[in-house]
Amino acid sequence: MFRLLTVAIAFSMLLMLLLVFGNVVMRYVFNSGINISEEVARMCFVWLIFIGAVLAFRAKQHLAISMLITRFSPRWQKIVHVLRQLIILTVLGLLIEGGWAQTVIGLSTVTPVSGVPIAVFSGAVWFCATAMAVMTLIDLWIALRTPATAENTATFMTSLDYIEDI
């Protein structure tokens, strides 16, 4: 699944490049343009950002400050990790709820040129939050099942590593 998301990002970048570059060339050389290029490029950009956020979340590449937590005992590191995951899950729950509400609202409004529902944009938020929530639940389940020992502190701090093949 994550390879498919990586391919989707690459395809979005390629499509954005071709549409924007093609539109620039068309405007300056032929004094015309591709009307739909701006809207499609914007849709690709939004999805690229949110899919990239999912992939970064999986790889634990989001900003984290752990210099204080690493000084805690393994038991307290696990407690802080579980609390952090619960807070993340709460925020993602709000994003899922709001993203879904905006997606439903956006189904009745379409973009001016392409006629695609505006829900495409808020659907990216909903997808991102849902994917992150699933990964957070998996991480939380693993963290709760892993004993808090010095050998296992790295395990529940990077417990999403086992989903390589999904």
Topology:
Elements: H1 2-29, H2 37-58, H3 74-106, H4 119-145, H5 153-157
Q: Can you describe this structure?
A:
There is one protein chain. The chain has 5 helices and no strands. By secondary structure, the protein is mainly α. α1 packs antiparallel against α2 (37-58) and α3 runs antiparallel to α4. The radius of gyration is 20 Å and the shape is elongated. The termini are close together.
Concise structural overview:
The protein is mainly α.
Report the principal-axis shape: elongated
**Total count of helical runs of at least 4 residues:** 5
**What is the average per-residue confidence, as pLDDT, rounded to a whole number?**
84
- How many distinct beta strands? 0
Number of domains: 1
Radius of gyration: 20 Å
Q: What is the terminal-to-terminal distance?
A: 5 Å
Low-pLDDT sequence parts: 159-166
Tell me the series of helices and strands, N- to C-terminal.
HHHHH
Q: Sheet with the most strands?
A: none
Structural class: mainly alpha
Helix content: 55-70%
Question: What proportion strand?
Answer: under 5%
Protein name: TRAP transporter small permease protein
Subcellular location: Cell inner membrane
Domain Tripartite ATP-independent periplasmic transporters DctQ component: 16-145
InterPro entries: DctQ, TRAP_DctQ
